[in-house]
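re: the backbone from monday

yeah here it is again, tokenized this time
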């Protein structure tokens, strides 16, 4: 008896039509989160690259980008912060973002190592009833995509928790070894729907 093990989303080319819709296991009403994924891309760094987009009807609630200048940024419905980090590459970086509302402290983690911390929107709560997509930046609810902001490359090992994981747990997420199930998104039981030209790699 074999079970399909779902391995990677492959976005083979620049489009304004291809994306993956993710269904969270919990509503994204959040005062903290840890978001992790492995990302490989060889897109030029003088181009915006959307890495994760969570949008409600009127707002981009939680968006992660690589920016024109190669920095990485995270926006929470308006305000954002950017971080200078190792560039995306063909072999893939394991990236996490942690944020919690009380202090507003936010950090990126690359291959298990934490960036310096910045402060973003203390007291803020991320609102539920939106849609999470990979591959495109929606300027309206599930629409108005721009090809020049699309993601091209591979995304795997996507997990999200409604709290900040400890450094030792993030290290284990990076090593893909013995860590708690993602209570918002868990790569081992991810509920998703692909639209357009997105390939899903499955191992038997
Ligand atoms: Ca856009």
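seq for it, each position gets an aa:
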């Amino acid at each position: 008896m074999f079970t399909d093990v779902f391995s990677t989303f492959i976005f083979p080319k620049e489009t304004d039509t291809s994306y993956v819709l993710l269904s969270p296991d919990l509503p994204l009403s959040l005062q903290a989160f840890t978001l992790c994924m492995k990302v490989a891309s060889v897109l030029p760094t003088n181009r915006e690259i959307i890495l994760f987009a969570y949008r409600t009807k009127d707002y981009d609630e939680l968006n992660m980008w690589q920016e024109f200048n190669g920095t990485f940024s995270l926006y929470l419905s308006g305000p954002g912060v950017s971080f200078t980090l190792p560039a995306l590459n063909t072999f893939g970086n394991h990236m996490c973002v942690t944020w919690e509302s009380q202090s507003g402290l936010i950090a990126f983690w690359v291959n298990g190592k934490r960036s310096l911390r910045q402060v973003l929107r203390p007291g803020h709560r991320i609102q539920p009833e939106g849609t999470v997509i990979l591959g495109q930046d929606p300027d309206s609810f599930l629409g108005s995509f721009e090809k020049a902001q699309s993601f091209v490359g591979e995304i795997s090992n996507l997990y999200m928790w409604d709290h900040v994981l400890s450094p030792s747990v993030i290290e284990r997420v990076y090593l893909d070894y013995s860590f708690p199930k993602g209570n918002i998104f868990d790569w081992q039981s991810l509920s998703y729907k692909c639209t357009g030209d997105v390939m899903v790699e499955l191992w038997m």
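The chain has a mean pLDDT of 94. The domain at 5-203 is CATH 2.60.120.200 (Jelly Rolls).
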